[in-house]
């Protein structure tokens, strides 16, 4: 027997695959296409076990599809722009470009050690000018189509990263920076936005997408579509106040109004007596916006000030006081609310704090119009204390009130979204320069497209000043206006790096195209992505941005489908052996390179898939990997070793059925990303082969079919060892060019066995039953047999005995 040495065999085969170009992308074959993408890595310097966990099973599925007869494309690239490069530059005085590209070189080697079916000629690196040139081109197209616009506004600012953040990058109720955990502050800046909100409704439509429910739910909540009405209240001082409410059915219960402190009407409506305290509150609130106001914490004490004015409830004509409070945000709806303390929690807390009227206008079945309100009751029910709409259900009342408001011209049906436009300007260096020029005469002018890429300059100063490093560059920002030729200045910000990953899956198909972002003839054939894999932490950023970008491209006529990725699967997380998140400080980090050196890539791949259901993740387990070492070792030996004796009587038909069954099982499991059960099945199959090997089945055609099948089924999972076995079995063409083995449905049905049936110890007949049949069904078959039935008729059955696989005995009197 030969010993299998992964350290020799794995590199040997990888070189051979490379030499023979067996993974080369062939866009034009006649086979049906299957486009599989796994989220591209950030070149942080080192591949960690999480990369292996995400990517190697994705490779297994891609390989499986290829064996199933698809023309599979499974590319890889690097998401190469971003803050860590710049921070490394600041900290260690390195050039971010050198840092990034040397990391890429190193990590590509690590990725190659995984044995993936990647065609590296199709690689993309987002920091390459050939790539980011097209970010700039898209930016200009968006600008021309009104999808990119500039706005002066207070934006979220991370004081540590020294840059603006998109709303998605501000996390938690405390509003911390997603990257560095600092408390996020605000800053007034002139910034570029992409108009993702113009696709809000379309982004809520997930039809045709086979995506995990939790991702679509998160996106739906993030977009946050609310249906309701805008309602206008007259105010005694003059100017009317318009509010947005999702509960027009509670209009009779509106006992006061609240304006956001920044609301433009505050200055106009405030009475002379209240001016001093209102001004003080407004000043305080504006200062607070710089830290945190948006808390969703309902326990938080409510603060506010009466502005000394009243509005008129349009239904009851009652006077309702107007307040300002910081729980009303200027950035949502109209920046003003009608407060319904009986049925809204925040309004209830506010009314309690300030002793304002609380009125019930909704009841549940067991309540009456007079039942006191102990807390806010937000649930729908039946309307009370509301004049002509009393008795309607909340839903009916909502419609009735909206119709009434529209008829009286007091309001109109309205929809609000939580989604905000995508803030793309970043005051950092290592990103795509924004291709815009500001001319004192002509205004905002795009860089002419034939001058793209607008290159990122070398040698800048990274001192974290809060200003864009490009602004501090001695010459870069000074230019001439493309329109009038006069002196002009460039935008000195760079783009959010989520721009890079918004369309990379398209660029992979034609990374060398120089006349357009991609070669349309190829993309028309290959898009959308059939299978996307990656982490669920990208639910509302990358996965929403890329859908937006795609729809914008579709509307530009560049792509035709409605969605960029048809099927999405999210892998879970590999935790430390202690079930904590892996981290350097906990000292529980598993280094994949060391594992590969010790066990080989195939073992690491196999173990990561065996450790648990892929979508759930699992804690690392050192003992478990030994189990996979033994499994692959046994698989190796069962095919390559010659048994000393193989003369025991065996059952070729049993092995044949086992072979057909495992073919079906592994195929079905890989199809649905159930890698762990596929491997468990293969382990069992190797045990069955170990037994069969001791019998006269060894060396037969059945044996050969079984061992070949084992090798083919292993090929996606453990591509190197499978290739070595395939060669051992006498094949000259790569196992990775073979078709997935097929199975015969008839072979899946349980094997049947023949059992003699005795009556009172004497054989009286024979029956055929499934080998796996249970006792009651065997007895039922025996009693129904045409020979046995007449013999037991009219007799009393005293005992029925089934000796498994041997006989049935019926004792009668
Ligand atoms: C009256 C009312 C009665 C409300 C009731 C709710 C319950 P969503 O679902 O998130 O869209 N609101 C409107 N604009 C606001 C702002 N700028 N800041 C803070 N709150 C605001 O929430 C819509 C509801 O949030 C609106 O409906 C309004 O309160 C409040 F029993 O109006 B409602
Ligand atoms: Zn000009």
From TrEMBL:
Binding, ATP: 584
Query: Is the tRNA-binding keyword given for this protein?
Result: no
Which InterPro entries would you find in this protein's record? aa-tRNA-synth_Ia (IPR002300), Leu-tRNA-ligase (IPR002302), Leu_tRNA-synth_edit (IPR025709), M/V/L/I-tRNA-synth_anticd-bd (IPR013155), Methionyl/Leucyl_tRNA_Synth (IPR015413), Rossmann-like_a/b/a_fold (IPR014729), tRNAsynth_Ia_anticodon-bd (IPR009080), Val/Leu/Ile-tRNA-synth_edit (IPR009008)
Q: What is its main location?
A: cytoplasm
Q: Where is this motif: 'HIGH' region?
A: 41-51
Q: Which residues form the Aminoacyl-tRNA synthetase class Ia domain?
A: 419-609
Q: What is its EC number?
A: 6.1.1.4
What the record says about family reads:
Belongs to the class-I aminoacyl-tRNA synthetase family.
Q: Which NCBIfam families match?
A: leuS_bact
Q: What is this protein called?
A: Leucine--tRNA ligase
Q: Which organism is it from?
A: Herpetosiphon gulosus
